[in-house]
Amino acid sequence: MKRVTGLGGIFFKARNPKALGEWYRQHLGMDVSEWGGAVFRWADDSPSGTTIWSPFKEDTDYMAPSSAPFMVNFRVADLHALLAALRAEGCDVQDKVDESEYGKFGWVMDPEGNKVELWEPPADR
Predict the structure, then answer these.
(1) CA-CA 20 to 30 A from 4: which of 14, 52, 84, 95?
(2) Domain VOC spans what residues (predicted)?
């Protein structure tokens, strides 16, 4: 019997859901619907795409400077171009970029102080 087969959604509290949804639409290009959320269709966009679920130790500083107990990771096509655009738009982009065999990783803080991880997978994925 199959149990969990993928990540069905990411849900979190927000002080101002409508304004936060608008920030994600404007700066990260997410298609935020009238009902307030966005739907990602992997089969249409990336048949080989994956979504990772991973718990971290409670004392990790990986999500810092956010105080939230979660972090969302979004796949992106061109990390450096997106980070430059976000900086130009006045977003709080972290200076650090990690590049490894797993791809390129960068981070931006949303208006409510949540750290958002942006990931450009390696070309062979």
Answers:
(1) 14
(2) 6-121
